[in-house]
Amino acid sequence: MVVAITLALGIILCGISEYMRLMIIASGVRDAVQSAIISTVNDNYDDVYHGVREGYAGGYKPSGSSWEGSIDYGNIYEYLDNTLGLQKNGGYHVKYAGEAVEFKLSGLSVDIINAPLAPSDPDSAHGLLADAVIRLEVPVSFGGKSLPPMWMNLSCMGALWDRACGFRL
After folding, report:
1. Entry pTM
2. Cα gap 146→165, rounded to integer Å
3. Residue 150's beta-bridge partner residues?
């Protein structure tokens, strides 16, 4: 009876530790993606000056007698590769723990929405927005290969506003 209870507690502890490992990986990747989005929004700061001078934060530059949009998309995968130590493998950016795959990233989608040029109501206009979604896949080591990998789409957003000259997340 004592052996059965000890085994049951051991299995429960293994399950809890695996759950905690998955959540720690997901949290770390989400933070890294959020940092990459902030970096991308920050990379657009050089083109925001002209818009800020006119009273709003948008990526525009003078073009003759008018304005044209000027947005930098940056390289979020490169930022994540350097930050998380990822390696490209096929269509994935993979983090290895020794020879085993710790997690994979794929399907990055980034939308950068420029602030409107000369909005009629600057108080209700949005700033320069960056919205990213990336797919995270983490192999589950509890239960051998009988369990499918955990996957989730991580979403992060960053914005640049003229009043604070900072970011909103």
Report:
1. 0.76
2. 50
3. 138
pLDDT tens digits, residue range 42-57? 777 666 655 555 555 6
Task: In whole angstroms, give the CA distance from residue 125 to residue 69.
Answer: 16
Say if CB 115 and CB 56 are below 8 A apart.
yes
Q: What's the burial of 99, exposed, middle or buried (CB within 10 Å: 0-12/13-18/19+)?
A: exposed
Q: Which structure tokens are listed for 116? A: 């409107």
CA distances from 85 to 29, 97, 151 (A): 11, 10, 20
Which whole-number Å values give the CA distances from 82 to 42, 64, 87, in the listed order? 18, 39, 9
**CA atoms of 136 and 116, how far apart (whole Å):** 33
Maximum separation of any 2 CA atoms in the chain, in Å: 86
**Can you tell me the distance from the alpha carbon of 77 to that of 49, in angstroms, rounded to the nearest whole number?**
27
69 vs 101, more confident: 101
